[in-house]
Design goal:
This protein is mainly beta. Helix content is 0%, strand content 37%. The chain has strands spanning 10-18, 21-33, 48-50, 66-73, 76-80. The protein starts with 9 loop residues before the first strand and ends in a 22-residue tail after the last strand.
């Protein structure tokens, strides 16, 4: 929970191939991490817990998970919207899931 300006804090970056495309999802501001660098992670595995590390440690910031994603184009990765890789749909008013969680 120590504030660090311009910092993602503790984070995990997972690279996967989805529908033939290589993507990276970065899970930021984590409170703890349950994987090792270079390890393979099974779908549904517990990778760590949400937190307030990095700039999320500022006073008044709630515990949360910040997602970033990128997709491989040629030899580079381009930033993309992580919502493109999440299939769970939520009710706009209650924010409750209205489809299966994936």
């Amino acid at each position: 929970t120590e504030y660090r300006a311009n910092s993602l804090g503790n984070y995990i970056e997972i690279e996967s191939v989805v529908n033939g495309e290589t993507i990276r999802i970065k899970y930021c501001h984590m409170g703890n991490i349950n994987v090792q660098i270079g390890s393979q992670v099974a779908q549904g595995a517990w990778i760590g817990g949400i937190g307030r590390s990095g700039n999320a440690g500022a006073k008044g910031v709630n515990t949360h998970l910040h997602l970033q994603s990128s997709i491989k184009v040629g030899d580079n990765f381009e930033i993309t919207n992580p919502i493109n890789f999440l299939s769970t749909q939520f009710d706009e008013n209650s924010l409750e899931p209205i489809s299966n969680c994936n």
